Amino acid sequence: MNEPHIESTEDREELNELLQVRRDKLKDLKNLGIDPFGEKFKRTHSAQEILDRFDVLENENTTLPGRIMSMRTHGKASFADLMDHTGRVQLYFRVDTLGEEGYALLQKLDIGDIVGVTGKIFRTRRGEISVEVQTLKFLSKSLRPLPAKWHGLKDVDLRYRQRYVDLIVNAEVRKVFEIRSRIIQSMRSFLAERGYLEVETPMLHVIAGGASARPFTTHHNALDMDLYLRIAPELYLKRLLVGGYDRVFEIGKMFRNEGISTKHNPEFTMCELYMAYGDASDMMKITEDLYAHIARELFGSTTVVFQGQEIDLTPPWPRKPMLDAIQEYSGVNLRGLDDAQAREAARAKGLDIEPGATFSTVLDELFDAFVEPNLVQPVFITDHPVEISPLAKRKKDDPLLTDRFEPFIVTWEAGNGFTELNDPIDQEQRFRQQMAQRDQGDDEAHMMDEDYIQALEYGMPPAGGLGLGIDRMVMLFTDSPSIRDVLLFPHMRPRS
Predict the structure, then answer these.
(1) Residue 6: is its pLDDT beyond 60?
(2) What is the SS3 assignment for the chain?
(3) In terms of pTM, does the model score above 0.90?
(4) How does pLDDT run across 163-195, given as a tens digit for each residue?
């Protein structure tokens, strides 16, 4: 996006000429004794402040830095739009004010240059609030032209690759990331008010634990050992419950060596929190209350619009057992079926199921195909089978299921939570079952973590745990259809 979409030799030659013209102006400024890449510049007002407080600031002097976004010349007067982090304000240049020499300096000014101006705040005869410039300083000469106009979806790849230019020319993109920051601030204050302590746990793990995912691997030279970028902070946070903290949370990056889609990026941001002496029902309440709190605080309503559809986040959200949801939307009752029977039932619904697929694999396939597309309004999918929930406590009334839930909004999984398994004997058996799955080729199955088992043997209180995907939350609140729209620098394949 930094430069026009180049498709011909003529385009390249034109761009090369533009680049050369700017470098010639750079040289001219240096020959005039002007530093094109200036120094500290003190700001007295922002662009938006000048517009909002004009009645008070009229005829006052201001010093204002920003980027030139447009220029218009009318004989011995010129106009420009200056943009800072708050918005735009018009600049007015007059030869009578700047003098012949100062006004001639405008010939060295290009769209995209960062300048600092001093001048008087006034309103033009056409009624536009402006700054009559008395002095102009170059703070950073732009050596590449900004795009003349935005080309829409065909340039989306360049938008993500060169986000810095995207942010310059698209105010609505800057707004997305400002909202993202406010969401995280709101989340932190919500949890702090409820007694949660924010902590930091390692990002380099000896064992990739806390989730079913394929990790990234790295190597520590001094210790000569392989390490994993964390796929989840869960097992470290629960060690803190063993250590005596009652409520903890962490907001940070996770890394999973998996596919890329509109909902997935190799690195993503999560909030995980744990509550001693709580359970899954507490975590569901925190989830729905947190979403509603953020919606009210940022937008004044618990109803938001996503891709043209109203989403009502008002608590309480419905609870729906996973097997019931599969039966409701696919017609398949998986209760009591073994692996082979589950495979046949799924094939009868038109799914392409591999010969060796396990019950849990079939369940995931049926859920993804038939249930997820229908989960538009907020809902908790509960009671997941033990086979796919190695860290969750079993349900008392059905030991084949766990006290686990996943919140779904606009067909996306928004998080994962459960009553934590604090029985070290059961946990070790679950890990061994996961290791058997790894031996059979499932590289996303959980690894054995003997230190975590040892921690549980010291005693971990009954607890509820929750992980929420912040990127997907931001997608919902900013009406963004792709995760790349809410990541400042999404992962991209290098260009040749």
Answers:
(1) no
(2) CCCCCCCCHHHHHHHHHHHHHHHHHHHHHHHCCCCCCCCCCCCCCCHHHHHHCHHHHCCCEEEEEEEEEEEEEECCEEEEEEECCCCEEEEEEEHHHHHHHHHHHHHHCCCCCEEEEEEEEEECCCCCEEEEEEEEEEEECCCCCCCCCCCHHHHHHHHHHCHHHHHHHCHHHHHHHHHHHHHHHHHHHHHHHCCCEECCCCCEECCCCCCCCCCCEEEECCCCEEEEECCCCHHHHHHHHHCCCCEEEEEEEEECCCCCECCECCEEEEEEEEEECCCHHHHHHHHHHHHHHHHHHHHCCCEEEECCEEEECCCCCCEEEHHHHHHHHHCCCCCCCCHHHHHHHHHHCCCCCCCCCCHHHHHHHHHHHHHHHHCCCCEEEECCEHHHCCCECEECCEEEEECEEEEEECCEECEEEEEECCCHHHHHHHHHHHHHHHHCCCCCCCCCCHHHHHHHHHCCCCEEEEEEEHHHHHHHHCCCCCHHHCCCCCCCCCCC
(3) yes
(4) 999 999 999 999 999 999 999 999 999 999 999
Give pLDDT tens digits for 143-171: 999 886 655 444 788 889 999 999 999 99
How far apart (Å, rounded) are the C-alpha atoms in residues 186 and 292? 11
Please tell me the predicted confidence (pLDDT) of residue 149: 60
Q: Cα–Cα distance between 82 and 361 in angstroms, integer? A: 57
Rg (CA), the chain: 29
Rounded Cα–Cα distance for residues 387 and 371 (Å): 19
Cα separation of 465 and 240, whole Å? 13
Spell out the domain ranges in the chain.
9-150, 170-318+378-485
Pairing of strands 404-409, 415-419: antiparallel
In 3D space, the residue among 448, 449, 452 whose CA is nearest the CA of residue 437 turns out to be 448
Cα–Cα–Cα angle for 121, 127, 131, nearest 5°? 20
Please determine, looking at this structure, whether the domain spanning 9-150 carries the CATH number 2.40.50.140. yes
Mean pLDDT value of segment 20-29: 96
Q: Tens digits of per-residue pLDDT, 282-301?
A: 999 999 999 999 999 999 99
Q: Which amino acid is at 380?
A: F
Angstrom CA distances, 220 to 198, 205, 215, 216, 450, stand at: 28, 11, 16, 13, 21
Its CATH class, for the domain covering 170-318+378-485, is: alpha beta
